[in-house]
Every structure is written in C-alpha cells, then in structure tokens.
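Illustration: GNAT family N-acetyltransferase.
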Amino acid sequence: MLEVRKSIPNDWERLWPLLSSMGKSDNKKDTYNRFLHMVNDEHHFIAVGVKNEKMVGYGWIQDYGFHLRMGKKTTRLHDLYVLPEYRNEGVASELFLFLKDWASKNCTTWLQWNASPSAVDFYKKLGVEPEENEDEYPFFEIEFK
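Result:
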C-alpha cells in the first residue's frame, strides 16, 4: 500500500538516495542543509511516497507568493521523481495529486512546471496539456479558479 504524506526532517536518510538517484545533487551535506530549511519553510512543500516502509518517490513544490500588482500566487513544481522499479504503479500520479491539492489549498492561482519530454504523456494522462512553446522542456500550467 502506498502512503503519500508531507516530508519531515527524519525522512532525510531515506530521501537522500532518491535525491542522488535523480541526479544533479552537489553533495550530501549541503543538500541536507537545504532540505532542513525547506522542510521547515512554509513556502516549500516536499511530499514523499512510501510503499512497504520504503521511500519510493518524492515531489517538491515552492510557493512563490503573491504577485505585487495582481495579488495572484504562483507555485512551481520543481521535482517529481519515482525510483525506476516503482514506476507505472501510480506513485507519481498520487504524489502529483497530493502536491496539486496542497497548492490549491494554499491559494495558488497558477501551478507551473517544465517537464522532461519523456514525461509529457504522463501529464497528459492526468489531464494536463503542455503549453505551446519552443523550449526543450515543455511548459505546463494549471490555473485554479
């Protein structure tokens, strides 16, 4: 059974292998310090997926706050990652929906992200189409009413 929940500081040792597996992490110590800051910062939300007591995926979004002139809020999806051996089991979908729900409940106007080209079909299955653009990494946006 999959449990999706907000990450807590004690998740670090189980989360680090996912972060390093995803790539582009500088080093464990600096990443740990950033993690502690973010997991305790109301503008960052890190969700984890746990299956049979093993951490198998995570997602991270950041609340950019309200726009000065419009009073509307943008939240950015930075990461959505599932260990390869747990893909196609619904983990990423559950994580994404959990993050989307958090954004909606936190007065977000727009949830935005760029995805790798290989993830486009995944987001389409969730009912989100990429915006038309020429970028190598397609842009997605959900507008909450």
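Reading the tokens back as a structure: Helices lie at 12-22, 28-39, 91-105, 120-125.
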